[in-house]
TrEMBL record:
Taxonomic lineage of the native organism: Eukaryota, Metazoa, Chordata, Craniata, Vertebrata
Gene Ontology cellular component annotations, sorted alphabetically: cytoplasm
Identification of the protein by name: BPL1 ligase
Signal peptide start and end residues: 1-21
Gene name of this polypeptide: Hlcs_1
Domain spans labelled BPL/LPL catalytic: 586-692
Keyword Kinase assigned: no
PANTHER family: BIOTIN PROTEIN LIGASE, BIOTIN--PROTEIN LIGASE
A GO term, aspect molecular function: biotin--[biotin carboxyl-carrier protein] ligase activity
Source organism of this protein record: Cnemophilus loriae (Loria's bird-of-paradise)
């Protein structure tokens, strides 16, 4: 019977090759509750293993259950949930061991095939423990379908390990409860744990990335693979099964790490998305991102790495859009196939005339099919039967063009042309193609077109006129051309805003706010006086305290005329004159119930970043003077890594200084702090009447 099953699987693979992913998923789902193991490997299977699928030199097979009961030589990770072994593996989760080897071993390639969509190992599982050596071994847990996703990526040479090694084998295991409890008791030192994380994660990258969370594939995507066709769009609700699982496990972990138990959060109300949208409209809340995607704008420059070109395009976009509603990043060529930008971006700006590689073009089309927007500046990107035709006489020529606006009016302006036009007699569905601008010449050449794609709102506006360049940044031939461009500059911005608005962005003008002085506040008069006493011996003769980020100049009152700059900020120490329409010290005092936290407050209406304000104080200030920096707006807010932090009015912008002894219960589990803070915010919001 085993041979017959194997032959059937081989026949199915030969007959239905494209559905191999569905075959893996269905096999794992059907058999994961039984006493068997699943193995994905790059070797010949053992005689007692049944081959289900072969892809190149790799196999997927099933065999007898494999148990892990001796874990003495494994090191638990700092982020491991072993603290509750009895709740570690729900019925729909699988524990497994991933073996990886150095790239130079057996002349292996450096990593996965870069021409394919890369799957990052930690995005699909939670690492639990590791064992260094060759092969390097990692124990992890994942949902049934995420385990399948890792196996599929392994078979298709798309799996990338976080430590840069090459995955060699993935095998499911059954973890004995006794072993889990034994491992939970062996709490290694912080130094050992940190070393373990370095072994798993490349230097310079956070070990608390998406591997700590359970990033599951959506049910619609599973159905898509099994049916082999169709597009699906999933509204992610906070009450979905996977989110509730994550929330429950996080709360349990935090309760263990915290000195005080956190009370149970009430169940989420089951209000529908439509009701929430109606409430937003009733309250007059401004919605500038109706697509629901993160407010990221990406600029693709092909193989160009020139920072000047990126800054040039970024600058003109910033002049047009609401700067407090969107962030702008560069999308490098190597990131197009590797990084998960498709789900995390609103707009892609293509600003290169280089040919678009086939793999990148497919990614751009996938972005459109998922509701993404594309703006092309003199690029070779096109689709939907629209062709680009080169005309030598138009290359680097300044020419008048007529732009049709959405309100049916027209704008005439002069722009530098790329030398290409969009060809008439366009193939494809004419209802999906609309010409927005033509040259004012005999041929009436089309230079700006609007294209739609798919059924999810994907659209692109492509221009063969240099809307992104002003007269100073162009290589114009004559003084006459320079003057024509200069006179059209205001209209160029008008057209750009029109185009961006068509693509769903908010172009409300918002000036960069002016930096304001910092106010030194405290709800406790004694602590305020103690801080001033401490300052006397910790500033120079001019009241200056410098740091690598910003110098703080302490002055007694707002009458002191000190210019506020990103590198020098006056701090007004006298509290009597303080007032703000956005912050009430009285309300802050009434609600502050801490012994140390937040006792010394640095408040500013507008600052660069609240993190900068604490930079020169937090490591020398006495522990009882808990520091917090609060701002109404930030001009240079920082997120994790290279992320930008949007800071419009109405956000709870603050940086809190917390000092935790490493030997304490929480000090041994530092990563839980982010969960404690997140849950505290949720509880605070839910304590407000109407937000329970």
């Amino acid at each position: 019977p085993a041979m017959l099953i194997t032959l059937c699987y081989l026949y199915l693979w030969a007959r239905w090759g494209p559905r191999s992913a569905a075959l893996v998923r269905s096999t794992v789902r059907r058999l994961h509750r039984s006493r068997c193991s699943f193995t994905f490997c790059a070797r010949q299977p053992h005689p007692d293993e049944r081959v289900c699928l072969r892809v190149g030199g790799k196999v997927f097979c099933t065999g007898e259950a494999q148990f892990l009961d001796d874990l003495n030589r494994w090191s638990v990770l700092l982020i491991s949930p072993f603290v509750h072994p009895e709740k570690l593996l729900p019925a729909e989760h699988i524990a497994f061991v991933t073996e990886s080897i150095s790239a130079h071993t057996e002349n292996l390639q450096e990593g996965p095939d870069s021409s394919k969509e890369i799957v990052k190992w930690s995005d699909f599982c939670s690492p639990l423990a590791y064992k260094p050596g060759e092969p390097f071994k990692l124990i992890a847990e994942a949902s049934v379908d995420n385990f399948s996703s890792l196996g599929i990526a392994f078979l298709e040479d798309r799996l990338q390990m976080d430590n840069g090694m090459v995955p060699h084998r993935i095998v499911s295991v059954h973890l004995q409860e006794s072993a889990l409890k034994e491992l939970a008791q062996e709490a290694p030192s912080v130094r050992e744990k940190s070393a373990g994380m370095d072994a798993v994660t490349p230097a310079g990258k956070s070990g608390l990335g998406r591997g700590e969370e359970e990033k599951s594939k959506l049910e619609e995507e599973r159905e898509h693979e099994e049916r082999g066709a169709g597009e699906h769009h999933h509204l992610h609700l906070s009450s979905c099964h996977e989110c509730l699982q994550l929330e429950n496990s996080t709360i349990e972990s935090v309760k263990f790490a915290s000195a005080e138990n956190i009370p149970e959060l009430p169940d989420d109300c089951s209000s529908k998305a439509e009701e929430k949208e109606e409430k937003c409209l009733e309250k007059g809340i401004k919605r500038v991102n109706l697509a629901g995607k993160p407010p990221n704008i990406l600029i693709y420059l092909g193989s160009e790495a020139a920072k000047a070109r990126f800054e040039q395009v970024k600058s003109v976009l910033r002049e047009c859009i609401d700067a407090e509603s969107y962030t702008i990043y560069q999308l490098h060529q190597e990131q197009v196939l590797r990084d998960p930008w498709i789900e995390n971006s609103l707009l892609l700006v293509i600003a290169t005339d280089e040919p678009i590689p086939e793999g990148s073009h497919k990614q751009f089309m996938k972005f459109l099919s998922k509701g993404g927007k594309i703006l092309g500046f003199s690029s070779s990107f096109t689709f939907g039967g629209v062709q680009i035709k080169h005309k030598n006489k138009l290359s680097k020529a300044v020419h008048e063009l007529v732009v049709s606006k959405k309100d049916s009016t027209e704008v005439k302006l002069n722009l530098l042309l790329s030398g290409c036009v969009f060809e008439e007699g366009m193939k494809g569905d004419p209802s999906r193609v609309k010409t927005l601008s033509r040259l004012n010449n005999a041929d009436k050449d089309a230079v700006i077109v609007h294209l739609t794609h798919g059924s999810s709102g994907g659209e692109a506006i492509l221009s063969q006129a240099h809307l992104e360049l002003d007269s100073n940044s162009m290589d114009v031939q004559t003084e006459e051309d320079f003057n024509l461009l200069k006179m059209s500059n205001s209209k160029r911005y008008e057209v750009l805003k029109e185009i961006l608005a068509r693509l769903g962005l908010s172009c409300d003008s918002s000036e960069v706010p002016v930096l304001t002085p910092v106010h030194l506040l405290s709800p406790d008069e004694e602590i305020h006086l103690a801080f001033l006493k401490w300052l006397e011996g910790n500033v120079d003769a001019e009241g200056l305290r410098a740091s690598s980020k910003v110098a703080l100049k302490f002055v007694s009152s707002c009458e002191s005329q000190v210019e506020v700059t990103p590198s020098l900020m006056p701090v007004i120490t006298e509290m009597g004159s303080f007032s703000s329409e956005h912050f009430s010290l009285k309300t802050y005092h009434e609600n502050l119930q801490t012994k140390k936290l937040g006792k010394i407050l640095l408040f500013s209406e507008v600052t660069t970043s609240t993190m900068n304000l604490l930079d020169g104080l937090m490591f020398e200030l006495p522990e009882e003077m808990g520091l917090i920096a609060v701002a109404v707006r930030q001009t240079q807010g920082k997120g994790r890594g290279g992320n930008v932090w949007l800071s419009p009015v109405g956000c709870a912008l603050c940086t809190l200084h917390i000092s935790i002894p490493l030997h304490s219960n929480l000090g041994q589990r530092i990563p839980f702090i982010q969960h404690l803070v997140s849950l505290a915010v949720v509880e605070a919001v839910r304590s407000i009447p109407g937000y329970e």
